[in-house]
Amino acid sequence: MSILIKNGRVITGSDDYIADVYIEGEKIAAIGKGLKINAERTIDATGKLVFPGAIDPHVHLDMPFMGTFSSDSYETGTLAALHGGTTMVIDFILQTQGKSLHHALEEWQGRSNGNCYGDYSFHMAVTDYNDETRKEIKEMINEEGITSFKTFMAYKGALMIDDGQMVQLMKEVKAQGGMVTVHATNGDVIDSLIAKHKAEGKLSPLYHYLSQPEITESEASGRFADMAHYTGVPAYIVHMTCEGALNAIRHATTRNQKVYAETCIQYLILDASLYEKDFEGAKWVMSPPLREKKDQEALWAGINQGLVQVVATDHCPFKWEQKLMGKDDFSKIPNGHPAIENRVELLFSEGVNKGRISLNKFVEVLSTNPAKIFGMYPQKGTIGIGSDADIVIFDPNEEHKISAKTHHMNVDYSGYEGWKLKGKCKTVLLRGQVAIDNGEVCIQKGYGNFIKRGKSRGFI
After folding, report:
1. Which of 107, 164, 205, 352 has the most CB within a 10 Å radius?
2. Residue 455 — pLDDT band, cuts 50, 70, 90?
3. Distance CA 381, CA 391 (A)
4. Helix (H) or strand (E) holding 194
């Protein structure tokens, strides 16, 4: 299949120009003005933006959690992502304590293989680091193409590893050319606050937020940065929410250390006042929780300062019936909210249109930086000759509303119900195929490929 996209305004992480883009097979074959090429299909992109497919490096599809599963499967989640301009996701495999990394990989492959509309990869969450696990790190990187390893500084007894294990894992991952990512919150302090609030009969969603004050995140972020500095491992903090955590990695730069930081779209535009809506606040129960207005301002500034490199989602949806598991106890509310479909359009409308970020920065944090940090650039993350033809054709002027009635995520509410946006994904191409065209699905389940990733190369 060959496709010629005519007269679009091409935006990458560094460029902004009017051009034609010619696609042959799965790759971009030519870029130029007035290309005289006969293609099997021509798409007129006059007046529209043309940018690389977005990459969401933080999603949880079909994930076991608190006795249930996140409500988006690999099928529904990757399809919803495509509708919203995200052509690739990186999900998290969770090692079961006492079992191997390969056992976990096989379990997740059983749910993902053949079921994805969009491209995907995995991070490996290490929850039980020992000599056997250590031996598997090299195999994951060199054979499976899984080059990033998630750690938890919270959820003791299920996911958390201690600082001694963290340092040993960092040393091995560093030796093999990988990266360590972290959920950076102080689990011991959080657990003590949860117990305190429950003992006092304070059981509403508000106390989920009050059990995770800013200090729990800023302290853990600084501690993680210190351990990464000691070991020299490439380091990445997921879902950063607050000014204090941002300052912890700002401090790391004073010793010439680079700690990559990701925030999520919800932390840029939603705040903790939503927890005051009685049990409706459960819609936004996630960890870390939403923060304050001052934290939003700090994160937007951090993006423009280059301290925050990625805007992801931590997409982990649960239907309302599942959220009701915690109606009498905030600690039993499944953590997570839906955003995989909304991220691109929200960031454009709230970021670019409101003058908070430039168009180049928009593409950088949604696509180019995730591709670079996680070993996929320039195959992914840019519009360049030889790159995968993952392309979004975007109408910057179309106005629309977000609603659970019209979204494609498998969840019966929206965290952004009624939000008015300007800017909409119109046509989405994945590896040279039109995947979504004006809301119509044009590919089959299983078209999405597993993408083996390269070693961390310290691009940014």
Report:
1. 205
2. confident
3. 10
4. helix 187-199
Mean pLDDT of 231-237: 97
Identity of residue 343? R
The DSSP annotation for 31-59 comes to EETT-----SEEEE-TTSEEEEPEEEEEE
Is 450 inside a domain boundary? no
pLDDT per residue as tens digits for the range 344-355: 999 999 999 999
Same domain, 282 and 343: yes
Q: Would you give the end-to-end CA distance of the chain in angstroms?
A: 34
User: Is 78 within 8 Å of 120 (Cβ atoms)?
Assistant: yes
**Are residue 60 and residue 192 in the same domain, yes or no?**
yes
**Do 33 and 110 fall within a single domain?**
no
Strands (DSSP E) contained in 95-156 are 119-125, 148-152
Domain of residue 30, residue span? 2-51+389-396+420-441
pTM across the whole model: 0.98
Maximum Cα interatomic distance, the chain, rounded to a whole number of Å: 73
Q: pLDDT by residue (tens digit) across 238-286?
A: 999 999 999 999 999 999 999 999 999 999 999 999 999 999 999 999 9
Q: Collect all residues with Cβ–Cβ distance below 8 Å to 457 and sequence separation of at least 6.
A: 372, 375
Determine the Cα–Cα distance for residues 289 and 346; give it in Å rounded to an integer: 19
* Beta bridge partners of residue 42, listed in sequence order: 4
Nearest to 14 by CA among 361, 341, 310: 361
Q: Which helix (H) or strand (E) holds 182?
A: strand 179-183
Q: What is the Cα–Cα distance from 377 to 57, expressed in whole angstroms?
A: 14
Regarding whether 238 and 202 lie in a shared domain, the answer is yes
Cα–Cα distances (Å) from 403 to 277, 283, 342, 421, in that order, read 19, 14, 10, 11
- Pair 43, 155 in one domain: no
Tell me which residue has tokens 């479909």. 341
Residue 346 shares a structural domain with residue 283 = yes
